[in-house]
């Protein structure tokens, strides 16, 4: 059928030399491998530096210094005139920090007349004890008049000093803790009253301007709600859109345009989505600000292109022979897609979804624009309530001045990374379940 | 006298035997892929309970013609079919005809074995399930067993029905695909080079199977192998450049074809 093209005459005259440049070819291969290994090592090195710096700074955030002392719930201070039966507010508004201060002062032997000494003692205890002791008394008013052993939250500066994060060689005037307080701290530590405990507060507390009482509880719930909204909205919408575009839509200029736009949308800076959310969901639709519902909707818009692109690629990768087999048996197009194509594309779809979700979980910029950067101390009960998100919480803590927020920022990063790891492991397990050979 | 009448009876019988029943009739079938015309006014009839082989060089339109018979070309973007194809008097390109039902009546086996990545049982049961052919589990079990038996695979797989269909050997996979096509009780089975991915032993098994299936089904097979066409078919159609060159009894085709091009192709002078 085809004409025979002969080699140039000279080529066949001499025996062919096949060794020309063979060393160079091997050298090129070795060089390429070396580049690859160098790039990988570089990447692994930076990963370790990142993890090391985050973990070494952050692991102390999971411990909190507490002062365990006998606290006298003095009726004199809490409810002098015995009005608690008629006025429940009495127990709520009582001067609990005074009780805590007196308890610590008593252990340290500070006289009640030493006003500056008492002030220094007061600075060692977190203002968070107000809520701590109040909750104890409100839950059980019987303890008024008795003495109970209570672990009081130490102030953030004492916490930092006890963890060795405050440089004590600096002159006393230029640091947050005085020599007297350091002395008391060591005295309490020796007697076993002051010590480090596991910090459950960082997981369950809302935000607080006092580092010792601040936690990511609200941010965790906010992030959880948002992930749920993104998953519930973006996955079905994205998969449905991809199936339509890939399997049903005619291939013409209009669908080409849509395809180009979807690819471009995946690259749009996320803050633009924040502006869109602000304009549409808050200003036009009147949804509440700072709500995880709005955050979830914005992140859904941001995640959709990622999911659509991944899903289309996964659908394309399903061998056409499977489609032909199902169609040849008399399955309708819908049956072919839902019985055969989609299950085979599932691992790819899940991978895309998890990449999109992880992206959304770490997104900060669009959330700033819809007001999720707010200071939220109370738990949101529904996605309509104000809340914040993990990355936003990290961003806010990174802006705080107190030394104790440094470790908490890293601690929150560790929690965020763990959240990510849990999500990814879940996705890998799901993918394993769906994965099939063909 | 007696002899004569006997001969007459035989002749009459013979005539009856030779009276041709056409299962599918293609009239002036042309296929266009976009602007490009792939088939030119093909008139080809498929006889009932006969194996019809379609031969010809690559790109001659034989697979395209095969795929018009169960409208698999519908799935290709920009593909247009003109002319008329009937299946037992029904025009299969009529708007009234449901393509899903048509494909249940005209099954297909592909070039590469393409079992679903599911168990052997599920592979067979899928077709009957979507067409509602089994009322209960016992029915389905029976269909699965009968189909596998028809495809000569039952003895080999009866103990591993719930293992993956993709774990079988290539030849077994292809017979599984034939069993899967048989399971929906089609009238016609189209085969697009069913043995091109198989070794000679597996090929021999599939050919034997085609031979047996002929009793119950009308078979149209596309093949690149002259020997295969000669072995399995009773009728052969030769395509060249989108045109039907010749359609004749296989024996005649391979010994004394009417057309010079057929002779050249069979002798291996082109293609």
Automatic annotation (TrEMBL), chain A:
Domain ABC transmembrane type-1 per the UniProt entry, residue ranges: 220-426
Entry annotated with the keyword Magnesium: no
Listed SUPFAM superfamilies: MetI-like
Highest taxon listed in the record's lineage: Bacteria
Cross-referenced Pfam families: BPD_transp_1 (PF00528), DUF3333 (PF11812)
InterPro entries xref list: DUF3333, MetI-like, MetI-like_sf, Phosphate_PstA
Ranges annotated as spanning the membrane: 32-55, 224-245, 265-287, 293-315, 336-361, 411-430
Membrane topology: Multi-pass membrane protein
Keywords assigned: Cell membrane, Membrane, Transmembrane, Transmembrane helix, Transport
Gene3D superfamilies assigned to the protein according to its UniProt record, in alphabetical order: MetI-like (1.10.3720.10)
Primary site of residence: membrane
Biological-process GO terms, alphabetical: phosphate ion transmembrane transport
Subcellular locations according to the entry: Cell inner membrane; Cell membrane
GO cellular component assignments: plasma membrane
Recorded GO MF terms: phosphate transmembrane transporter activity
Family matches, as PANTHER family: PHOSPHATE TRANSPORT SYSTEM PERMEASE PROTEIN PSTA-RELATED
Family: Belongs to the binding-protein-dependent transport system permease family. CysTW subfamily.
Protein name as catalogued: Phosphate transport system permease protein PstA
From TrEMBL, chain B:
Pfam name, any one: ABC_tran
PROSITE patterns in alphabetical order: ABC_TRANSPORTER_1 (PS00211), ABC_TRANSPORTER_2 (PS50893)
Domain ABC transporter stretches: 24-266
GO BP annotations listed: phosphate ion transmembrane transport
Domain of life: Bacteria
SMART domains the UniProt entry points to: AAA (SM00382)
Record keywords, A-Z: ATP-binding, Nucleotide-binding, Phosphate transport, Transport
MF-aspect GO terms: ATP binding; ATP hydrolysis activity; phosphate transmembrane transporter activity
Signal peptide per UniProt: none
Record-given protein name: Phosphate transport system ATP-binding protein
Native source species: Aliirhizobium cellulosilyticum
């Amino acid at each position: 059928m085809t004409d025979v093209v002969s080699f140039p005459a000279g080529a066949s005259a001499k025996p062919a030399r096949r060794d020309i440049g063979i060393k160079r070819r091997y050298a090129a291969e070795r060089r390429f491998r070396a580049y690859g290994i160098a790039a990988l090592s570089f990447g692994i090195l930076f990963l370790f530096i990142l993890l090391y710096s985050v973990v070494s700074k952050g692991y102390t955030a999971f411990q909190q210094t507490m002062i365990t002392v006998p606290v006298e719930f003095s009726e004199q201070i809490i409810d002098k005139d015995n009005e608690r039966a008629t006025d429940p507010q009495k127990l709520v508004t009582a001067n609990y920090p005074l009780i805590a201060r007196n308890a610590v002062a008593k252990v340290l032997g500070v006289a009640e007349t030493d006003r500056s000494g008492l002030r220094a003692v007061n600075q060692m205890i977190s203002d968070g004890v107000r809520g701590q002791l109040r909750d104890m008394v409100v839950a059980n008013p019987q303890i008024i008049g008795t003495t109970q052993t209570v672990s009081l939250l130490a102030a953030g500066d004492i916490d930092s000093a006890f963890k060795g994060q405050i440089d004590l060689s600096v002159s006393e005037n230029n640091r947050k803790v005085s020599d007297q307080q350091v002395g008391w701290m060591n005295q309490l530590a020796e007697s076993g009253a002051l010590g480090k405990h596991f910090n459950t507060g960082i997981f369950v507390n809302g935000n607080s301007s006092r580092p010792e009482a601040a936690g990511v509880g609200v941010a965790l719930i906010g992030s959880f709600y948002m992930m749920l909204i993104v998953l519930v909205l973006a996955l079905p919408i994205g998969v449905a859109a991809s199936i339509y575009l890939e399997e049903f839509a005619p291939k013409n200029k209009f669908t080409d345009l849509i395809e180009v736009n979807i690819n471009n949308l995946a690259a749009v800076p996320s803050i633009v989505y924040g502006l869109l959310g602000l304009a549409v969901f808050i200003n036009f639709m009147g949804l509440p600000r700072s709500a995880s519902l709005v955050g979830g909707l914005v992140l859904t818009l941001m995640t959709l292109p990622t999911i659509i692109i991944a899903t289309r690629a996964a659908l394309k990768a399903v061998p056409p022979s499977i489609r032909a087999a199902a169609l040849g048996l008399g399955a309708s197009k819908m049956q072919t897609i839902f019985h055969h194509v989609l299950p085979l594309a599932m691992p790819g779809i899940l991978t895309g979804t998890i990449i999109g979700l992880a992206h959304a979980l770490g997104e900060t910029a669009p959330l700033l624009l819809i007001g999720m950067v707010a200071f939220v101390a109370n738990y949101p009960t529904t996605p309509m309530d104000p809340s914040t998100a993990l990355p936003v919480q990290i961003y806010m803590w990174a802006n705080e001045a107190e030394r104790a927020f440094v470790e908490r920022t890293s601690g929150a990063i560790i929690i965020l990374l763990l959240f990510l790891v849990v999500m990814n492991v879940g996705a890998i397990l799901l993918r394993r379940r769906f994965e099939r050979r063909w | 006298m007696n002899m004569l009448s006997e001969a007459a009876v035989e002749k009459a019988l013979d005539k009856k035997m030779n009276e041709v029943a056409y299962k599918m009739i293609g009239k002036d079938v042309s296929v266009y892929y976009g602007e490009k015309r792939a088939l030119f006014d093909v008139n080809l009839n498929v006889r009932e309970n006969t194996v019809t082989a379609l031969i010809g060089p690559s790109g001659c339109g034989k697979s395209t013609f095969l795929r018009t018979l169960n409208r698999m070309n519908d799935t290709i973007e920009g593909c247009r079919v003109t002319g008329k194809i009937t299946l037992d008097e029904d025009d299969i390109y009529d708007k009234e005809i449901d393509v899903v039902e048509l494909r249940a009546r005209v099954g297909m086996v592909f070039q590469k074995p393409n079992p679903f990545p599911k168990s052997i049982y599920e592979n067979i049961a899928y077709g009957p399930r979507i067409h509602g052919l089994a009322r209960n589990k016992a029915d389905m079990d029976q269909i699965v067993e009968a189909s596998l038996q028809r495809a000569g695979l039952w003895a080999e797989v009866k103990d591993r029905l719930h293992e993956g269909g993709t774990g079988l050997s290539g030849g077994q996979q292809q017979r599984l695909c034939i069993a899967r096509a048989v399971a929906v009780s089609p009238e016609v089975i189209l085969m697009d080079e069913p043995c091109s991915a198989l070794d000679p032993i597996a090929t021999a098994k599939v050919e034997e199977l085609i031979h047996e299936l002929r009793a119950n089904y009308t078979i149209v097979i596309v093949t690149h192998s002259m020997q295969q066409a000669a072995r399995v078919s009773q009728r052969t159609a030769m395509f060249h450049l989108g045109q039907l060159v010749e359609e004749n009894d296989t024996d005649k085709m391979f010994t004394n074809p009417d057309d010079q091009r057929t002779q050249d192709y069979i002798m291996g002078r082109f293609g």
